From TrEMBL:
<feature type="binding site">
    <location>
        <begin position="119"/>
        <end position="122"/>
    </location>
    <ligand>
        <name>ATP</name>
    </ligand>
</feature>
<feature type="binding site">
    <location>
        <position position="57"/>
    </location>
    <ligand>
        <name>ATP</name>
    </ligand>
</feature>
<keyword id="KW-0093">Biotin biosynthesis</keyword>
<dbReference type="InterPro" id="IPR027417">
    <property type="entry name" value="P-loop_NTPase"/>
</dbReference>
<dbReference type="InterPro" id="IPR004472">
    <property type="entry name" value="DTB_synth_BioD"/>
</dbReference>
<comment type="function">
    <text>Catalyzes a mechanistically unusual reaction, the ATP-dependent insertion of CO2 between the N7 and N8 nitrogen atoms of 7,8-diaminopelargonic acid (DAPA, also called 7,8-diammoniononanoate) to form a ureido ring.</text>
</comment>
<keyword id="KW-0436">Ligase</keyword>
<keyword id="KW-0963">Cytoplasm</keyword>
<keyword id="KW-0460">Magnesium</keyword>
<keyword id="KW-0547">Nucleotide-binding</keyword>
<feature type="binding site">
    <location>
        <begin position="14"/>
        <end position="19"/>
    </location>
    <ligand>
        <name>ATP</name>
    </ligand>
</feature>
<keyword id="KW-0067">ATP-binding</keyword>
<keyword id="KW-0479">Metal-binding</keyword>
<feature type="binding site">
    <location>
        <position position="119"/>
    </location>
    <ligand>
        <name>Mg(2+)</name>
    </ligand>
</feature>
<feature type="binding site">
    <location>
        <position position="18"/>
    </location>
    <ligand>
        <name>Mg(2+)</name>
    </ligand>
</feature>
<comment type="similarity">
    <text>Belongs to the dethiobiotin synthetase family.</text>
</comment>
<dbReference type="GO" id="GO:0004141">
    <property type="term" value="F:dethiobiotin synthase activity"/>
</dbReference>
Amino acid sequence: MRANSFFVTGTDTDAGKTFVSTLLLQGFQSLGISAVGAKPIAAGAEINEAGQLVNSDALLLQRHSGIALPYSQLNPLCFAKACAPHFAAAELQQPLSEAVLSAQRQQLEQSGAEIVLIEGAGGWLLPISADRYLADWVQAENLPVLLVVGVKLGCLNHAVLTARELTRSGCQVIGWVANILQPEMLFLAQNLADLTARLPWPLLATVPFQPSVSEQQAVARTLAHATAQQLMPT
Ligand SMILES: Nc1ncnc2c1ncn2[C@@H]1O[C@H](COP(=O)(O)OP(=O)(O)OP(=O)(O)O)[C@@H](O)[C@H]1O
Ligand SMILES: C[C@H](N)[C@H](N)CCCCCC(=O)O
Ligand SMILES: [Mg+2]
């Protein structure tokens, strides 16, 4: 069996891609769907007890995956410095190779999982070289995309810019998630309505700020159900 993969992008770094991805993985598990989460390119990492460079996003995705896989399969390109990853890669003369990304995807799709969640880094137009973006690889791979909007002041501009570029890419967009980062934001309900009117894809779920356990469980199931329906239509 070959898994269905999809790519999680966000309106910016810290939009909540990992937060939403771990909810999605929990939701898949509660629906009885085996899923793995991967972070192909990670910048910002520490040496663990085994002497291995590890990134906290990749570790969270590993912990919430339904299939246990070695760290290097989930995060082949890992850099210590918390920066735009192509700078860290250039400093070490280790290119962010699209061939490595494609090989990782293939391997994960043959891991026995039904769904492979691939988290990006930063926003949609993350540079991976002088003239390529991670978005170009996603487009070349024909990966469906899920957009996480970090709902805070400034998100309208970030979301619409991202949407325009996603549309231009021709990528299939599964939908978007409203991830509330500033619950005290003025006109929060109006911002959500405005995003809903401007984004041409379905709102799959709204993730509250610091959701309670029961809120997490509910949103995880809703999100996972909607995503699985798009990826594995019956
Ligand atoms: N709904 C939320 N409620 C409370 N905290 C949140 C929420 N969403 C995200 N956060 C927190 O905000 C921070 C940034 O979120 P997260 O790490 O998921 O962003 P990201 O988009 O994955 O960033 P990166 O580009 O580094 O991968 C984290 O500390 C996370 O726990
Ligand atoms: C280090 C950080 N947490 C992310 N993983 C990488 C963010 C890269 C942003 C690049 C940019 O768009 O300027
Ligand atoms: Mg992340």
